[in-house]
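Researcher: Last one for today. Full complex below.
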Amino acid sequence: MTSPLLSIQDLSVHIRGDAGVARILDGITLSVPPGVTMGVVGESGCGKSTLLRAVLGILPRNASIPHGKLEFKGKDLIQVNWSAARGRIGFVPQDPYLSLNPVFRAGDQIREIMRKHAQGTRKDHARTLIDLFRAVQLPDPVGALAKYPHQFSGGQRQRLLIAAALACAPDLLVADEPTTALDVTTQREILALMRNLVSDKGLSLLFVTHDFGVLAALCDRVTVLYAGRVVESGLTSDVLRHPQHPYTRLLLACHPDRAVNLLGIPGTVPAATQQPEGCRFHPRCPIARAACSKEVPPLTPLGSSHLVACPWYPDALPEQALA
Amino acid sequence: MREILRVTGLEVELGKRRGLFRHKPGVRAVDGVDLVVHEGGILGIVGESGCGKTTLARTVLGLQCESEGKIEFSGHVVSGVPAHQARRMRRAIQYVHQDPGAALDPWWRLGTSLAEGLSIHGVTDRAEQKARIAEIMQAVGLDMAMTERYPHELSGGQQRRMGLARILLLRPKIVILDEPTAGLDLSVQASVLRLLYDLRDRFGLTYIFISHDLSVVRRVCDRIAVMYLGKIVEEGNAGDIFAAPRHPYTRALIAAAPHLDGVQTGPMLRGDPPSLRNVPSGCRFHPRCPVAQPRCTTEEPAFDSISEKQKVACNYWQDGISANQKPEGQAYATL
Amino acid sequence: MMVLRVLLRDPVAALGLFIVLFAIFVAIFANWLAPYPNDAFESHLLQRLKPPSVAFPFGTDNLGRDIFSRVILGTRNALLVAVAVITAAMLIGVPIGLFAGWREGWLSEVLMRTTDVFLAVPQLILALALGQLLAPGIGAAMVALALTYWPFFARTVFAETRRLRGSLFVDALAGIGASPLRILFLHVLPNAAPAVLVRATIGMGFTILTAAILGFLGVGATPPSPDWGLAVSEARQHLPEAWWFPTFPGLAILVLVLGFNLLGDGLRDAADPKIRRSKR
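Model: Here's the assembly. Have a good evening.
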């Protein structure tokens, strides 16, 4: 078995604020093998944005990493100089309208990134960029170099951002919900594009989203986060068709494609500074027992790569919770 | 079910400028729309950005003046009057914004904002205001203590409930919901949708549900109307349309919507919709249509009634039927 | 108030606030704080141009008057002039900006172009011109200052009104049936108030400085007024020996104008509606 491209083990991230220390991430373990698309899904407050920032090396100044390992191609990313590694990790941001500087031409902006992280002369960069623009199916790739961001549509801007992420020939792409601002039909094109690019170039993809449908369309594997911890992970087909963790089961039951009765999940996500003891989901869990408030449930494997952080997963959830 | 709203031949022109020296023509954001809404129903309006659904909603509401066409509310004609009067005649139609937190004055406490609506509509007695507010807060599942807070102190789900509370106080008959689930977590979304159902039953409401999230529309709406570039291209019962969409655009939309089973088959729609300033000739969908024929560039399709409840505006909708008589859940063959 | 607490967190703004409050205190109690309050109008030629000493902390001027007292007394003049001018400018500028911002069409265009015309006129020139027409003095100076400052208020209020007119909550208010007047006075105006307040605060500083300049040029305050600018002007002939003569009034101008500017900057940061918090 090849070693994973991105390996996160027992990573914790704390953020110090006015209200105290927020344990945003606690013991995250996740690995992305080469050529695999991994989705990270969760609701607000689950820590997925912080996880992204940790991988990219852009955690805020008041953040600290008390323990854990974050390795990319075998090299530690926590202690080491971020910039050297960053060239091999491409980032596709969320908002195509805000992520491009409106006063610089598209070509110039992307070439600025290439100058920092890729070899070659200006002409080489321009040629690579035109090939990339062609690969992301931008109309008129040569002309696009000289255009300003406002001259592109939303979908085209997202393609620009994907091209920018690929400009330095990365091995890992990290995407932060890149299609939420787009229309459904455009989103479908972008997702198909990303799927094809990832498989053609043999990249790995870490895809953060809150939309299970997008996840199902794009990602081979999925990691479900709740309140800063991994509650379930595995192959997308396994987790979506046979969810095991009570949270995953309740959450998927809320999806309009599945919901018979729309019930939601009682309670709210705990504040990051006041996390419950033991399993963080236990206050809202219909099958919680006394032990759940004392011990942190470990991620236990269920056969082929399906992991669950709940010792009571085989129990059926009560009727009224799932309906 | 009784008819509560009827829109006939609605046209709305936006952005016309008549300056001293320049004359910029406007765009037809809504170009000939007919719609019927029945009491107690949930009508979904779907379409992508620029299709005119928001303009349609604002015109029905009375915030936007129509250029042509007729709007009848509970049998009375309410169109053809100036803006402020239009709002007064249609006060039983209310609108919940996409971002309900931003729809509240940030300097006012929530309780005061709620009471203001009542004052505007003639309920000025403090005691009565308080009683009505208490009733509505309980109905939307919010604690009365929240009336002391400011809009930015509430979470997304709470803001949405507050937005609903504000207009429910005015006892509307029709509520237009603009993207009611946008930006909400899945679990919050489910409880908001449940709340909408409960409120409908409790207060006898009718909903016009504007959304781009087809999974939600499929689950929640009785009837849907699909809009493209200012026109309705298909309309009918939600179940019928999702099972067997006739219009190529509807098919593309449904095929593009992410589904939990990950199935996304059907033709992919390339490119972006043209701007309203350059509406294509003939059938306005023809440049992106996978089954367009020469006739489509010149002839604008009229509505064909597939059944008493369903209609579609396409020159060739019949061609698609034989290839697509499959029940929902299975993949469609590509055209 | 919440604004105060946020303001005080910024040390620079807190300093501005302190200076302004101190100046107001001095202006109110000037007659009791000044050791020689009659030096506002009395002269003591025997003690002219004496350097700073214990008896006269800032020295005496060319007419033997205690500069320390005159600086204290001048605070009252400076603040009164500033308040009067800014109030007048607000009374003209705010309604114009509100009206032009709310409506669209040729009238609003005309109003804003008129505003631009007034903005183009340099204050000093206008003051000098008015000085010819009216009797030269502090009155003419105040009229000139008000006439050249109202456009700033009009501009600010216009921009705020336009911005708020397009905002979602104004749209929502129209949706629930609020009349345009209600929206304008109960919602737009309070939301525009912070911007107006900031503009007014900075305008105070600006007015004090310009009034001092006008006084210096001789088209503002007239003798024997303890006006700071006038004092600096009177001191010109006695430099460089009587260095204390222009220095202390000049410093007073500097400190007070600085105070208003720092306060105004701090207010701009603090006046965000999101800082409003309910009591928990």
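The two ends of chain C are 15 Å apart (CA to CA). Chain C has a mean pLDDT of 84.
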